[in-house]
Write the structure tokens for this entry.
Amino acid sequence: MKHALTALAVSGALVAAAAAAQAENWDMPVAYPANNYQTENDVAFAADVKSCTGGKLDITVHPNGSLFKGDEIKRAVQLGEAQIGERLLSAHANENPIFAYDSVPFLASSFEASDKLREAAKPVLAKVLAKQNLTLLYSVPWPAQGMYFGKQIDSVADMKGVKFRAYNATTARMAELTGMIPTQIEAADLKQALATGVVASMISSGSTGVDEKVWEDMKYFYDVKAWLPRNTVFVNTDAFNALPKDAQDCVIKSADAAQTRGTAKAASLADGFVKTLAEHGMTTGPASAKLQEGLDQIGATMTAEWLKSTGTDGQEIVDAYKAMK
């Protein structure tokens, strides 16, 4: 009996060791704070994957640029230094302008339009990422982008010389066309940049404004709904292909759920973010007619420039998007 129990114990230990050996542990660097809805959605995605795979794939989310800084995440996943990651792909438009599909000014200015644009761009975007050893999983929008300033702005001319926080090539170009001075600032460094006067304005969602308590440094928010940028989650293709088929299916299923859940959360929070800005003393509201007219002209210029830079790929996205309207 004693020998039998010993044999069972050894057998159980071997089974446990074999299960542990089969388990995959992935790192998922993200650029935003742990309490941001984008990061919370990624944590929920990781929990879904772990549950769906019976613990065979365990993804650890590393928030706020703690494992890799925002501008390092995409390359880290490409090289396999992290297996999966989340990134604002438009920040890499210098690599390929297709990555800025979601930041073309005034092309898609609502959650419904953003979802249609995402679907229209999916085949082209997946093709571009595949060439970089990345597999597209899901993306979640931010609320529509508004403009933050420390002073009242009534026209594009009033922006001249203002120090502006850029987070991708699109925002830098917008700054140039308005006469502002752009400086690239990652999300994790934004608060310090505002507090020290490195920048005094930006275009971003209400979510970022609340996260960073921008009312401490800026007083005006113009809800121009320029575009809805999207955080995109992608996986190293080699790491994904190494998973058994059932685990791959679990990842895809969990990704689809994360995209739906994250989009719904963003939409539910959007108005609340702007309300919170106002409650903390910021002046919020639409742009004046004169300011909006100037921004629309800049948007038309930037749309034409983006289509020229992307060629047939960009036109394919826009044509597919317009066909959905």
Summary: The two ends are 74 Å apart (CA to CA). The first strand starts at residue 24 and ends at 29.
